[in-house]
């Protein structure tokens, strides 16, 4: 439209050289700006690819971290020394912190995936870790609390003791340890059933001797603490 009007004005009006240059600059603007737009498109596409690659690297790094955390979680099932309970509690807290950081990383990754309009990545192993670590965290803290309480009663001032409150505390410890023992026994039973089902599917009907369940260190510790409480009572 500007060009059409300019053609008319050039026929009926005598422009100064300065005005001609100004109007020429306006009409020639697309020729100058379009290459800049094209260059900008290339820059944006390059930045997009870079961010996409960074996001893929973040996802892979998170998956590796979750695998490491799962291996650490498996180590808890082998913990068997009551005199190292303080270390066990520390280990659980450190792993819980790592799981929390992984959860935050997963949320950040999902937000970036939304921006790229990608399908959101799910991390079911991370959810399993959060659930599975909870019983160990409770158990290790309970045992440590019992150990410290018993030491305070046995080594502290005799006149500071209160028989009624001690009895109530001991009963509470006894109930909690019993509930924990039952939980881990049920957990072991369920895992054994799942292993047997999987073994049956693999064997395709072949007869196999059933393996005896291995001794569970966590259950052994529960039983030992229950016996300690019983002796103390």
From TrEMBL:
Which is a Gene Ontology cellular component entry for this protein? dynein complex
Region annotation (Disordered) maps to 194-218
Entry's Gene Ontology BP terms: microtubule-based movement
UniProt GO MF annotations: dynein intermediate chain binding; dynein light intermediate chain binding
Where would you find the membrane-spanning parts of this chain? none
The alphabetized UniProt keywords are:
Coiled coil
Q: Does the keyword Metal-binding apply?
A: no
Stretches assigned to coiled coil: 85-112
Q: What is this protein called?
A: Dynein axonemal heavy chain 12-like
């Amino acid at each position: 439209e500007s060009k059409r009007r300019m053609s008319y004005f050039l026929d009926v009006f005598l422009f100064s050289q300065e005005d001609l240059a100004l109007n020429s600059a306006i009409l020639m603007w697309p020729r100058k700006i379009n290459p800049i737009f094209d260059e900008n498109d290339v820059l944006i596409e390059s930045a997009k690819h870079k961010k996409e690659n960074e996001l893929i690297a973040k996802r892979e790094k998170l998956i590796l971290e979750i695998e490491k955390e799962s291996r650490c979680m498996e180590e808890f099932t082998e913990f068997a020394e009551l005199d190292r309970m303080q270390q066990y509690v520390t280990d659980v807290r450190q792993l819980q912190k790592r799981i929390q950081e992984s959860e935050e990383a997963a949320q950040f990754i999902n937000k970036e995936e939304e921006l790229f309009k990608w399908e959101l990545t799910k991390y079911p192993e991370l959810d399993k870790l959060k659930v599975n670590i909870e019983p160990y965290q409770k158990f290790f803290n309970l045992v440590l609390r019992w150990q410290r309480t018993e030491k305070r009663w046995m080594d502290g001032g005799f006149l500071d003791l209160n028989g009624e409150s001690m009895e109530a505390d001991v009963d509470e410890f006894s109930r909690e340890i019993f509930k924990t023992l039952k939980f881990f026994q049920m957990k072991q039973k369920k895992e054994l059933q799942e292993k047997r089902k999987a073994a049956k599917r693999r064997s395709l009907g072949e007869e196999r001797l059933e393996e005896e369940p291995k001794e569970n260190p966590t259950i052994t510790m529960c039983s030992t603490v229950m016996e300690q409480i019983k002796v103390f009572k």
